[in-house]
Amino acid sequence: MTSHTSEPSEPSESGESGESSEIVDTEAGAARITWHPAQRPRLVLAVSHGAGGGIEARDLKALAAALPAHGVSVALVEQPWRVAGKKLAPAPKTLDTGWRGVWPALAAPGLPVISGGRSAGARVACRTAGELGAHAVLALSFPLHPPGKPEKSRADELLGAGVPTLVVQGGNDPFGRPREFPEAPAGTYDLVEVPYGDHGFAVPKRAGIGQEEALRLITDGVLKWTGSLG
User: Fold this and answer.
1) Per-position DSSP letters for 57-80, written without gaps between them
2) How many angstroms separate the CA atoms of 140 and 151, rounded?
């Protein structure tokens, strides 16, 4: 069962209608979807947060601000543990359960749904893409391995998504730098690097690019990729 917790606002000058949110009951508890709809959507990009933060992450906010003007509705998904105010994420199995529970609401507009997330949310998207019928996967800051433990690779999750996949990775991400990602058959996944970016895509002041430019690399890369999807 779902229930709206806020009403949509009026369309903005750029042509997108205002955001709205809904609570979705899942077997893992109540999740929340915050919609940033396009006026004439052709795709839905659903993205969830990581284990250490919420949908206020800079990359998620940037995507929600940029993509609706290009025909991609963005759904920011808060997992039940975040909605409940807990500080620690549950086991991966429980995260998958929460994601499965919100999927019918994400698919309700009748459009192809890109399953996405950052960090732990990216792993969830990869693990469940096939069973949920995701159109594609967007993996932001995919945690290829725990920091300092490259031998504990999670590459099998990424390579097993089974649908077109885009990885957006910071050049200095301790959970996996772009050069550490495995080679794979053409069409398995593409990778966009954010130079100097850490796991949260923050770039140091001494970097050759500013923070706004780093975020543009993310949104431009995702827009180009979504435009290539059939």
Assistant:
1) -HHHHHHHHHGGGGTEEEEEEE-H
2) 21
58-66 and 211-228 helices, crossing angle to 10°: 50
Q: Mapping DSSP to helix (H, G, I), strand (E, B) and coil, where does residue 82 land?
A: helix
| Tokens 């706004």 -> residue | 212
Residue 21 vs residues 2, 15, 191: alpha-carbon distances, Å = 10, 19, 31
Backbone angles phi, psi at 41, to 5 degrees: -75, 145
Per-residue pLDDT of the chain (230 residues; tens, 9 = 90+): 444 344 343 333 333 458 899 999 999 999 999 999 999 999 999 999 999 899 999 999 999 999 999 999 999 999 999 999 999 999 999 999 999 999 999 999 999 999 999 999 999 999 999 999 999 999 999 999 999 999 999 999 999 999 999 999 999 999 999 999 998 888 889 999 999 999 999 999 988 899 999 999 999 999 999 999 96
123: DSSP letter: H
Please name the residues in contact with 185: beta carbons below 8 A apart, sequence gap of 6 or more.
none
Q: What whole-number distance in Å separates Cα of residue 106 and Cα of residue 32?
A: 11
Three-class SS of residue 157? helix
Structure tokens, 207: 């970097």
Q: CA Rg, the chain, in Å?
A: 17
Say whether pTM exceeds 0.90.
yes
On whether the CB atoms of residues 169 and 218 are closer than 8 A, the answer is no
The H or E element that residue 28 is part of is none
Query: Containing H/E element for 126?
Result: helix 120-132
